[in-house]
Design brief:
Length: about 300
């Protein structure tokens, strides 16, 4: 009964999250095509690499295309990444990411490249970067990603605990900005650095992948609650016996480490299984060892 309830609500939440990511893809495309691209600024990460290739094809090779092909190039670059990650990451995450990248490519092709702030380069950079970064961060909170370095960084984090998305982004961005400095003027490089910084700030604000929390749950229904947590969140649970100092009544303590974005789901599980449970959450704990990192 509990398993069916969890699976039913998990499927409904996945459908809703997928709908949200499609909307966020459109918002990202608006931020990119109406603020970043029209003023000639380049992003960081894999999208920036694709924008650089687009410029080389159009400005140096003389290729004349009606749409901004950076989105199409981004999709093509993600194909080998998907194939590499297929057996290494959860299928649900990869399927969501595939849907996200597909709609992102579609919207980048459909949304016209038109400057909403044609005479204000700095304003365009600020608005566009915050819009794109916020959309990317919220996409990660929905259990999906926009592909590219997000997937590669997660694979690195799973293989080596001390590495992750941040270090990979740093290496790629250093190489990118060096190429920008060789090909373009200093103004473009400076604005591109500002754009990358603001986008990263917005992503970190909305995405809690690297913020781990420690949860202790005092309950009298440990078996049902522990089973629901393991099924609903896929997290391990440690339990130990306890006694109330005032009431002298026996109870149990469930101990679990989760990512911050999983708190809402955990609260829902606890409320459903044991509304009288006592929950203590400690923020920003450092975790070492066998802890599964997720998007």
């Amino acid at each position: 009964m509990l398993k069916q309830y969890i699976e039913k609500h998990e499927a409904a939440r996945d459908v809703l999250d997928t709908f949200y990511t499609v909307v966020l893809d459109f918002i990202y495309a608006v931020g990119m095509n109406m603020f970043i691209v029209p003023v000639g600024i380049y992003c960081g990460g894999l999208m920036g690499v694709c924008q650089l290739i687009r410029t080389l094809l159009t400005d140096y090779a003389g290729l004349n295309i009606a749409i901004d092909v950076a989105g199409v190039l981004y999709y093509l670059c993600n194909i080998p990444i998907f194939l590499f990650a297929w057996k290494r990451l959860r299928r649900k995450t990869l399927v969501k990411t595939l849907v996200t990248v597909s709609f992102l490519t579609l919207f980048l092709a459909l949304v016209p490249v038109r400057a909403l702030l044609p005479d204000d380069v700095l304003g365009s950079v600020i608005v566009g970067s915050l819009v794109c970064g916020s959309a990317a961060g919220l996409t990660l909170r929905c259990g999906s990603s926009q592909g590219g370095l997000d997937i590669l960084g997660l694979l690195m984090a799973m293989g080596k605990r001390e590495t992750g998305v941040g270090r990979l982004y740093l290496v790629v961005n250093v190489v990118q900005f060096a190429a920008y400095a060789l090909l373009f003027n200093l103004q473009i490089v400076i604005y591109s650095v500002i754009s990358t910084f603001l986008s990263s700030f917005a992503v970190d604000h909305f995405h809690f992948q690297n913020i781990n929390v420690e949860v202790k749950i005092i309950t009298k229904r440990k078996e049902e609650l522990a089973d629901a947590i393991m099924r609903g969140l896929g997290r391990g649970v440690t339990e130990w016996a306890s006694v109330g100092a005032y009431t002298e009544e026996p109870s149990d303590v469930l101990f679990v480490i989760i990512s911050k974005y999983e708190i809402t789901r955990l609260r829902s599980i606890v409320q459903r299984c044991d509304p009288n449970a006592f929950v203590v959450i400690c923020d920003k704990v450092h975790v070492y060892g066998n802890f599964l990192k997720r998007l």
